[in-house]
Amino acid sequence: MTLQELFLALDRFWAARGCALLQPHDGALGAAAMHPGAFFRALGPEPWRAAYAQPTRRPADGRYARSPDRAQRYYSYLVVLKPSPDDAQEVYLESLSQLGIPLRRHDVRFVDDDWESASLGAAGVGWEVRLDGMAVTRFAYLQQMASIALRPASVAITYGAERLAMLLQGVGSLWDLEWAPGIRYGEIGLHAEASWCRYQFEVADTERLSAWLAAAEAEATAALAAGLVVPAYDCALRCAHALSLLESRGALGTTERATAVERVRRLARQCAEGYLAERERLGFPLMQPA
Amino acid sequence: MGDLVLEIGTEELPATWIAPALAQLSEAVADRLRRENLRFQDARTYGTPRRLAVLCGGVIPRQPDTVIEVRGPSAKQSFDAEGNYTSAAFGFARSQDVFPEDLKVKRVAGGEYLFVERPRPGRPTVEVAAAFLPEVIRDLTFPKMMRWDAGGLRFARPIRWLLALYDADVIPFELDGIRSGRTTRGHRYLGLRIGDCRSPNLQSAISNPQSTIEVREAGRYAAVLRSAHVVADPEERRERIRRQVEALARERGAALLEEDLLGEITFGVEHPTAFPGSFDPQFLALPREALILVMRKRQQYFPLADAEGRLLPHFIAVRDGGEEGLDQVRAGNERMLSARFADVRFFCEEDLRTPLPRRVEQLRRLLFQERLGSLYEKAERLAALAGFLCDVWSVEESIRRTVLAAAWLAKADLASGVMKELPELQGTIGREYALRAGEPEAVADAIADHYRPRFPGDALPATEAGRILSVADRADTLVGYFGIGMVPAGSQDPHALRHQAAGLVSILVEAPPLALPDLIEGVYSLYGDRGAGWRSREVVQATLMDFLRLRLENALAERGIRPDTADAILDAGFEDIQFTLSRARALESVRDDPAFARALSAAARVENLLRFAARSELVHVPGEVQIDLLEEDAERELYGAYLDAHPRVADAVRRVDPGAVLRHLGELAPAVEEFLDTVLVMSDDEVLRTNRLRLLTEVNALFLRIGDLGRLAADAA
What we know:
The structure holds 2 protein chains of 2 kinds.
Chain A: H1 3-15, E1 20-21, H2 36-39, E2 48-57, E3 73-82, H3 88-98, E4 108-112, E5 115-117, E6 122-131, E7 134-145, E8 148-160, H4 161-169, E9 178-180, E10 183-184, H5 185-203, H6 206-225, H7 229-248, H8 254-281
Parallel strand pairs in A: 1-2
Antiparallel strand pairs in A: 2-3, 3-8, 4-6, 5-6, 6-7, 7-8, 9-10
Helix pairs in contact in A: 6-7, 6-8, 7-8
Chain B: E1 2-10, H1 15-35, E2 42-48, E3 51-59, E4 66-74, H2 75-78, H3 87-96, E5 104-108, E6 111-120, H4 125-139, E7 159-166, E8 169-170, E9 174-175, E10 178-181, E11 183-185, H5 202-206, E12 212-214, H6 221-227, H7 234-250, E13 254-255, H8 259-266, E14 272-278, H9 288-298, E15 302-305, E16 311-320, H10 326-353, H11 356-362, E17 367-369, E18 373-374, H12 375-392, H13 397-409, H14 418-421, H15 428-436, H16 441-449, H17 464-483, H18 497-508, H19 516-527, H20 537-558, H21 563-571, H22 577-590, H23 594-615, H24 633-654, H25 658-678, H26 686-704, H27 709-716
Parallel strand pairs in B: 7-10
Antiparallel strand pairs in B: 1-3, 1-7, 2-3, 4-6, 5-6, 7-8, 9-10, 11-12, 13-15, 14-16, 15-16, 17-18
Helix pairs in contact in B: 1-4, 7-8, 9-10, 12-13, 12-17, 12-19, 13-16, 13-17, 15-16, 16-17, 17-18, 17-19, 17-20, 18-20, 19-20, 20-21, 21-22, 21-27, 23-25, 23-26, 23-27, 24-25, 24-26
């Protein structure tokens, strides 16, 4: 199964289970759950089911394309189910079977591993799903988003697309994955990966990045003042990314980092509160009539 | 008699939480049975990642019948002069729905009263348990709780089913929308074997993705699960894994079995099957500790070593499942391990590009603690402190050079890339990188050594240089945190200062003499003034000494010193830890000796008298004993004995010979007794009284050289 077939198979599987297939967010995200289609929709009482592939950026995970399974940019496939169904685990396992992974012939384990995003004030309780020793999915019951407790809780299932494909294709390095027939992952992404690593670790100017962080924060505040929560959230995401770039350069002391994270978290919280107020004014349109 | 079983079916619980939860569960159920008067024989637990269960055997089927008594009016109010019931008595009978002839008179505390006795039939076990089992489940606690739906229930992970049986009967209850029943779930992936326990045929196994299976009788619980490929008994799983791993290891080398890891794996699987795997021998060039850490902690594999302890390019892993597809499972695990090793290699390669001195420079950017400055500043202080300790202990020149070099490099590895991935390897990586940078082996060893003891019970640093550096590092951390007032309180100790202090004490008790206040003072002055909120040196001295005293009490207890001996010793001061220990040992060995008991009681009498004098209004002025005022024989004798003993005791203290100190004090005892028996200390003559109290004060001070002996005698009495 090529990587693109994997995405198609996941789309089909989750569309058949009532998920809206969203498209990736058009900005750099450090975690797929930062997508507005997960961040905002996890808040409040309205039900929501969505699935999408999302390129994810983790500058600190860059290895100059020299690691077989780590990169500063990779693909997540996120499914968010709200409220959390009783059989979420079973449905997830069924999706693995449908991808062509006979569970009896593998070792599938739910190893406890809670998820947290300090800058978003997000927290989930759950597992890293290990398939034959390889972490292929993060499975979490979201408890908190933007520092707001979630009732009902959502389930967020984040597949690591490359890891799963490596297992399905039986290859030891993501760069050897078949993306499409005759086209390897390395062909598409290897040069870019190495370039990004050089840029992030060696070239990016920390002073300009700090200025960028400050500018994005000011924009977020301005948008919030005008009551525009979605654009404000986008600016907050830019802050979060600037922050992880600075971090990967080792340019932040512990205190500076904590202060910056706290500032972004406050922005995220204000966006979330604004969104909730907006939905309430609209009468929570997605609520099923009782 | 019957069996009662409760199974809480969950999504996968964190492995380390299961054993404590089982203990809680069994204790809670046993406690409720007892309180409900339901006798039972035993309680045992079963647990896997997906279930917490308790099975109580020999539970009686219903509570025993009892009688309850309802008290009515007093006898005085209930009978008239002729001994007939009054209206109060009739009213009571009516209110209790009995005939007046059923009323009884009983004498209780407070007089005679009317009573009605009402038999209370015991309720059936099923009914009683149905009421308390939901509470038992609700009351279980975990290190972290979560919610999974809009209901109010919080638990470690979502509860998906509840099985509750008394023999063949379901104990019916509902918890947050989940109804109890007789259905459990088998192994997730192995499902049900055809023909098991009248299990469904293959078709229905497919249509039964949750592998549900019914338990007809409580006593069959474990057997039914076994037929569904779940080994419910943790001990059985653990031993099965141990056997499998040892058998596989025998053909290859020796498995580096570790009980913690074994336990973690035991509680991570329902149906363990061990299998061997290998990795590219090229990776053996990476630091051995890094390989072991990745295998054990990140991947939960058992590493293998040869007879000489050299690591082999093999491991043993455990899967949750049977033999099916084992080659595929092995291949996946091998790929994963080699990716993890490749990551470590990447960091090592990147790290080694940076020369060690530049790595030390990078410590300027890493904070030790926000208000205590960078790790670079810490390294500077460590070098200065190490020099101070070398002076105090007059260590030889070669070791001094080693310590000073190591102090400077001790924290350099914290700025390395590997540390981001494997923070547990602090020190170990420092040693490795120092060696690769061409530092002498002794320096490298001291760097690794200075983190010891890493945890309670860990070995002390093996080298002298390591011990010196460890003392310097711990003293620096403690004084710094106490200086900014971050003192552990209650169970809060986020910076593990108690462990730091315990490590410091355990090294110092085995080290040459060192005055603790000097050490604290030395570190304090190295910190300089840290601005607002920085505690004064007196406060730091006092609070830190109190803190160290508690660690010292533990250290003494570990060495078989009784708590009251320890108190007697510590009350008299513990500035030099090593001398404190030898004083404690000496006192501990003589305190039960009848001959020494005399010294103890003499010391106690002196102390009591001085305390009395201090409390009374007869204040005495401190000062020298006036020889010409010593009127009586016993007085002069005591003074002579004191003058005799004083230099000997002082000398013995100087030689750190507490045995001799005690011996000389013992020799003083008869003169003290004689004095106290025959001389009136609290004389009306103020001049005489003052002189006598001064004499006793001197004698008391001599006793205190070893410890608060009077206190020990008082405790014994």
